[in-house]
Amino acid sequence: MTKNFRTIFSILVILMLCITFFRIRLQENNLAGCPQAEGSFFLMNTIVQIRIYGDKAEELLDRCFELLQDIENRMSKTIEGSDIYRINNSQGEFVSVSNDTIQVIRKALEYAEITEGRFDPSVGVLVDLWGIGTEQARVPSSEEIKVARGRVNYRWIEIDEEGSKVRLLKEGMKLDLGAIVKGYAADEIRKLLKAEGIRSAYINLGGNVLVMGGKPDNTPWKIGIQDPRRDMPGAIASFEVKDKTIVTSGNYERYFEKDGILYHHIIDPATGYPADSGIISASIITDDSIDADALSTSLFLLGIDKGLQLIDKLDGVEAVVVKDDLGIIMTEGLQDKLILLNDDFYIVTRK
Ligand code: AMP
Ligand code: MG
């Protein structure tokens, strides 16, 4: 599929969603006799799909989408008046923001520390400069990249002592929580559903998947790892899980092509260019989606050796990496669980 065709296809999908008031809904009893509700929504720049099993499923579905809208209104970089928008436009000044925004920024700073700044929530200026995923996508000049890199450093993000205000210490700096906010949102949906007694649900925020419990009949969910080759639909591998989140970062998600070179949306602050780590997709399987989201982006940025060294040190975190030669490397805990579905790929044995 050409990029133009993809763009037209994406616009058509979005238009269809608009026509149905951005919402497709299903309510029925599933085979296990459990009420269920399912909805899809265009939010956070992606298609969100939620399926809930249990009493009040339909009402809870509405509340989930309201919650997501609320998180987006606070943490989007582009929505005027959002917490992040106000921080980015009040350089040098402390800005009062919601507790959740502080919580997400703190978590992002933790990952910036442990990845030595490869994951960096202050990457906003570089992200805007490249414009990947927008109509303005272009290859910047090396001078522009140099200037923008000089405005990226998570250590210049300051949270006040009371933990209610944030300021950016360097002029022209910009926060971007795009690598972590979907994970946070998935966790928040789970919190809401759990408090309402829901034990089985499937939440998918554009590839950030979180499953609650097992399926309504208590069998595990089967989760696929998407084919990371551009325009190749389908799963390359699958495994079964209950109560887990699976988040993937890939160079096929948002990109543009110029003079035969593909430029994708995960920018390495060390170079100012899209990360070129030999990885085409990095998936994390763990308990909390905020960690999975931050870690999948981090793994993608750090590359196979450093990235997997980091994952190996973390308790309860598993990873699947697809290399650009279609080799699949996974952590120990997945070795007898992952089923390869596509012969173009091969499993790499870790030394
Ligand atoms: P993900 O799809 O979760 O891997 O996140 C990619 C998004 O994170 C991009 O679209 C940017 O908004 C943002 N981003 C890009 N590069 C970085 C980086 N080095 N550190 C943190 N966030 C980034
Ligand atoms: Mg991420």
Overall description:
- The chain is an alpha+beta fold.
- It folds into 2 domains: 3-72 and 182-347, ApbE-like domains (T-fold), CATH 3.10.520; 83-168, Orthogonal Bundle (T-fold), CATH 1.10.3980.10.
- 32% of the residues lie in helices and 26% in strands.
- The chain contains 9 helices and 18 strands.
- The chain has helices spanning 3-19, 57-75, 83-88, 99-114, 124-130, 142-149, 181-195, 289-302, 304-313; strands spanning 24-29, 35-43, 46-53, 95-96, 157-159, 165-168, 200-205, 208-212, 221-226, 235-241, 244-250, 255-258, 261-264, 279-286, 318-323, 327-330, 339-340, 346-347.
- The strands form 4 sheets. Strands 1-2-3-7-8-11-14-15-16-18 form a 10-stranded mixed sheet.
- The longest helix is centred in the first third of the chain and has 19 residues, at 57-75.
- The structure holds adenosine monophosphate (AMP) and magnesium ion.
- The site of adenosine monophosphate (AMP) has 18 residues, from helix 8.
- Adenosine monophosphate binds next to helix 8.
Furnish the topology, listing elements before pairings.
Elements: H1 3-19, E1 24-29, E2 35-43, E3 46-53, H2 57-75, H3 83-88, E4 95-96, H4 99-114, H5 124-130, H6 142-149, E5 157-159, E6 165-168, H7 181-195, E7 200-205, E8 208-212, E9 221-226, E10 235-241, E11 244-250, E12 255-258, E13 261-264, E14 279-286, H8 289-302, H9 304-313, E15 318-323, E16 327-330, E17 339-340, E18 346-347
Parallel strand pairs: 16-18
Antiparallel strand pairs: 1-2, 2-3, 3-7, 4-6, 5-6, 7-8, 8-11, 9-10, 10-17, 11-14, 12-13, 14-15, 15-16
Helix pairs in contact: 2-7, 4-8, 7-8, 8-9
